[in-house]
Amino acid sequence: MFGWPQKKFNFWQYIANFWSGFYFILIIWDFITNNSIIEALDIIGFIYIGVLAIYVGNKEFERWYRKHQDRHPGEIFVIIWTLLILTIVCLDLILQKSYHLPSSVISSYIAVLTILAVTEKSKALHLRSHKTLKIKKGRFK
After folding, report:
1. Pairwise CA distance, residues 71 & 53, whole Å
2. Distance between the two ends of the chain, CA-based, in angstroms?
3. Which end of the chain is more exposed for a tag (fewer CB within 10 A), N or C?
4. How many CB atoms lie within 10 A of CB 64?
């Protein structure tokens, strides 16, 4: 009857976290080695955004069908991405390297920002519809 809360295993969350970490490491490695792995960044960037989109889509679907319990704020991903991009740009200027931020990295950053914006709007719409439903049932004041 009483017990520890069971944490649900979220396959897509672990996969998204893995690809995020792997992609960040490759971006840093590409910076250190002056664009030596641009092709790999292109491929991993596509995989990363695909996995992230599946994870976020699944999370939003669960939210709308009231199965979503866990909180994993997307803002954390945006903060990490922003810090990574800013750090690379600043270090490039300070160290006067000939590094060029690959377009796949810029595209991935924009995709992460877009995914966050869409999920924030979805969350707001869900809250509004949930409040409207409670008002109609007379349970909300």
Report:
1. 17
2. 33
3. N
4. 14
Taking residue 21's Cβ as centre, other Cβ atoms within 10 Å add up to 11
pLDDT attached to residue 30: 98
Of 119, 46, 116, nearest to 81 by C-alpha is: 116
> Which residues have C-beta within 8 Å of that of residue 46, sequence separation ≥ 6?
104
Q: What contacts 130, CB < 8 A, 6 or more positions away?
A: none
Alpha-helical (H) ranges within the chain are: 11-32, 38-64, 74-95, 103-137
Give Cα separations from 141 to 55, 94, 136, 137 (angstroms): 34, 57, 11, 11
Q: Is 84 exposed, middle or buried (0-12, 13-18, 19+ CB in 10 A)?
A: middle
- Exposure string of 96-118, with b = 16+ CB inside 10 Å and e = fewer, is eeebebbebbeebbebbeebbee
Using one digit for the tens of pLDDT, what is the confidence trace for 77-128? 899 999 999 999 999 999 999 899 999 999 999 999 999 888 877 676 656 6
